[in-house]
Amino acid sequence: MAAAIVVFLAAAILWSAVNLLKEEEKKPMYRVSVVVEDSVSERWTAFRLGIDQAAREYGMDVTFAATGSFEETEDQKNLIGQEVQSGTQALILSVFDSEEAGSLLEGISSGIPVILAETDAIRPEGPETAAVALPGREMGRALGDMLLKAGVDEPSVAVLARSRERYLEMEMLEGLTETVRAAGGSLLVLKEGEADPDVLLSRARTQDLIAVLDDSLLVTAAALMEEKGLKKGKLYGVGCSPSAVTALDKGIISGMVIPNDFTMGYQSMAQLAGYMAKDLPALSDIQVGYTPVKTEDVHDPDVEKLLFPLVQ
User: Fold this and answer.
1) Do 76 and 96 touch, CB atoms closer than 8 A?
2) How distant, in Å, are the alpha carbons of 39, 70, 76, 215 from that of 67?
3) Please, is 209 exposed, middle or buried when counting C-beta atoms within 10 Å of its C-beta (0-12, 13-18, 19+)?
């Protein structure tokens, strides 16, 4: 009798496992396309890891559109059109220009949910569009606080920024400006494209401190400073790429506000998975966090979890 019960239980477990596998096979795998500028840039490393992690957990099929630098919104719009035509069922975007995003989103077919990652934009209201964005003004203030602790009274600050109109950069600049000016400091804003990076850095070095609001510009500035053997202690910024972290660890960058890009990517994909499986009635706006980090804090365990989220 005991042997028969064991056999029965084993058969029941096997039957349940087989049926569970069949149920898993029945679950639809939705296709999601990610369209960001310069998709192979290190700037997206943690973001991609977060998206991939959520895609594995929720059984989503993710495609990262191969992109270079966009010259205008139309470039991104054309790429999105190609992804839609190829059969994508949802989109994760980091918009090229927040002010022109309305025309970009209008061209997306109804029924295709869209997550705007990193920065918000002018967009239609509705259950199928939401932003998983960073708190730009808060990040700017955090960067300003780091500058004010650099040991310079009423500092003059050179700000290096991208030339496009993206809410994230605009908000960061506003927060940084409020903080520095409230302490009696001044700002000189230099935009990418006004001159070669070498010339921009030379202009920036006329000020007490340098604040960079974009990861790629920060990495470029750090590389130039290291190459020229320039004095450390002046360069701060917003970044998250491996190259930026390396420069921070070396002390070339003295302090950095690091956005939690892994969570941003994970939440973007997780929301789409829940909405498309009808577990969520609508997509919701989510604000992602950030962490100010100085060179001496890079190897703090909590900071390492942020920098290397999958290495636990």
Assistant:
1) yes
2) 5, 8, 9, 17
3) buried
If asked whether residues 255 and 149 sit together in one domain, one would say yes
DSSP 239-302: --SHHHHHHHHHTSS-EEEEE-HHHHHHHHHHHHHHHHTTSSSS---EE--EEEEEGGGTTSHH
Q: Could you give the residue ranges of the DSSP H alpha helices within the chain?
A: 2-26, 45-58, 73-85, 101-106, 136-148, 167-182, 197-204, 215-228, 242-250, 261-276, 301-307
Question: Per residue in 132-150, pLDDT tens?
Answer: 999 999 999 999 999 999 9
Residue given tokens 């973001």 in the structure block: 47
Residue where the block lists tokens 């994230």: 168
What's the pTM? 0.86
Q: What average pLDDT does range 145-157 have in this prediction?
A: 95
Query: What Cα–Cα distance (Å) separates residue 118 from each residue in 6, 96, 247, 260?
Result: 55, 11, 23, 10
- Mind listing the pLDDT tens digit for each residue in 46-75? 999 999 999 999 999 999 998 877 877 788
The answer, yes or no, to whether residue 19 has pLDDT greater than 90, is no
Same domain, 240 and 252: yes
How high is the pLDDT of residue 213?
96
Q: Are the beta carbons of 173 and 140 closer than 8 angstroms?
A: yes
Confidence of residue 21 (pLDDT cuts 50, 70, 90): very low
Is residue 296, in this structure, part of any structural domain at all? no
Domain housing 220: 136-259
Cα–Cα distance measured from residue 195 to residue 212, given in angstroms and rounded to the nearest whole number: 16
